[in-house]
Amino acid sequence: MAVTVIPLADLRSTAALPRLATHSRPPEGQLIDRRGRPVRDLRISVTDRCNFRCSYCMPKEIFDSSHRFLPHRELLSFEEITRLATLFAAHGVTKLRLTGGEPLLRRNLEALVEQLAALRTPDGLPLDLTLTTNGSLLARKAEALKQAGLRRVTVSLDALDDAVFRRMNDVDFPVADVLRGIDAALAAGLGPIKVNMVVKRGVNDHEAVPMARHFREQHGGNVVLRFIEYMDVGATNGWRLDDVVPSHELRQRLQAEFALEPLAANQAGETAQRWRHADGRGEIGFISSVTQAFCGDCNRARLSTEGQLYLCLFARQGHDLRGLLRGGASDAQIAGAIADIWHQRDDRYSEMRGELSVQGATDGPRIEMHYIGG
Ligand code: SAM
Which of 44, 62, 130, 156 best tests ligand 1's pocket when mutated (most atoms within 8 Å of CB)? Predict the structure, then answer.
């Protein structure tokens, strides 16, 4: 029998320790990178574990019982996360998104939510605090998360058809439980909810229209369904361009069923192109990370489970903020280091990936999605 070996580059511990800045006071104000992009959105991965094994993200063959997940001591503590989030807020971050792995697997996550909900921008405003989840534990946790101060949730759901969904999550998890989670989140006041569907050709693209119909009819304006182009993140999912359904193709299919009108972006740096049902019964979005890379106004920073700062989903190198935290650096020093890192930021990996794939080149191993979060 032929055996396929997929090299899994473990990039979890290769981050460089940032140079310690000499600032005696934290540098204040909005950080801007070399391409004029501010930092606004901090995505915080709270665990590298997940209870799903979606083949496009954590394929079972690789993330099996022999895979070594990070031991608890390697994870940032809630206090460490909050300390970093405070420094990022002083630097212009207005939005925090908890992710993973599956963030609801992190024990007592509500305590972290409570700490983050207390943070303020320099103008004294609360941050937009959200969470991305596969929804499997949401029915149980929605109310407590809301009480702790969570504002909204994004739920990942790739199909309505139970058999398709069970195949995709590859742990036989039923779609009905995720739908219950969405209902619970709406009832708890965590709406409007975004539902993210990764579309893979020949696997679930036929589910796009039923998904759009379901959320339009059941939830109208309270659930925004967003279609995500399947991305070449990480090194384990065997990504092929042929598996991607370009957003424009999907939109045509949806427009054959529904009257849709384009909407303006809510804010700069928004990942989705927004459309609304012309009769006012809800909104859908397209996240075209592959066919229309949107590096130009990317304002996102990503903090890995073990405290490495990544400036892009496709980066190969992080910056070891945990090393600073645990090495005794002061707030001023860490804030200075973050400022130096962001000021140097010059990447536009997604746009370059387009250029490289046209040339047929490869650009080496990258971090895995379950480690850095979506
Ligand atoms: N477990 C949580 C969840 O399911 O939302 C958070 C982490 S998960 C890595 C975040 C998002 O990334 C999910 O919506 C998932 O579908 C998406 N994702 C993972 N791999 C992807 C890929 N190769 N292309 C596009 N989206 C991907």
Answer: 156
Strands 41-45 and 300-303: parallel
318 within ligand 1 shell (Cβ under 6 A): no
pLDDT tens figures, 194-232:
999 999 999 999 999 999 999 999 998 899 999 999 998
Measured CA to CA, the distance from residue 30 to residue 24 in angstroms comes to 18
273 within ligand 1 shell (Cβ under 6 A)? no
DSSP labels, 3-61: ---------TT-PBPPPPP--SS---S--B-TTSPBP-EEEEE--S--S---TTTS-TT
CA of 237 to the centre of ligand 1 (A): 12
**Residue nearest to ligand 1 atom 17, measured at CA:** 374
Q: Which atom of ligand 1 is nearest to the CA of 289?
A: 25
Contact of 85 with 118, CB cutoff 8 Å? no
| pLDDT tens for each residue of 82-123 | 999 999 999 999 999 999 999 999 999 999 999 999 999 999
User: Which atom of ligand 1 is nearest the CA belonging to 229?
Assistant: 25
pLDDT at 304 over 80: yes
Q: How many CB atoms neighbour CB 151 within 10 A?
A: 19
The one-letter amino acid at 222: N
Rounded to whole angstroms, the Cα distance separating 158 from 228 reads 10
| Spatial separation of the C-alpha atoms in residues 116 and 148, rounded to whole Å | 9
How many Å lie between the centroid of ligand 1 and the Cα of residue 52? 11
Burial of 39 (0-12, 13-18, 19+ CB in 10 A): buried
Which of 45, 48, 55, 56 to probe ligand 1 with, by most ligand atoms within 8 A of CB? 56
CA–CA distance, 276 with 258 (Å, rounded to integer): 10
In this prediction, residue 16 carries a pLDDT of 77
Residue 344: other Cβ atoms inside 10 A: 12
| Mean pLDDT value of segment 41-70 | 94
Separation of alpha carbons 42 and 317, rounded Å: 17
Residue 156 Cβ < 6 Å to ligand 1: yes
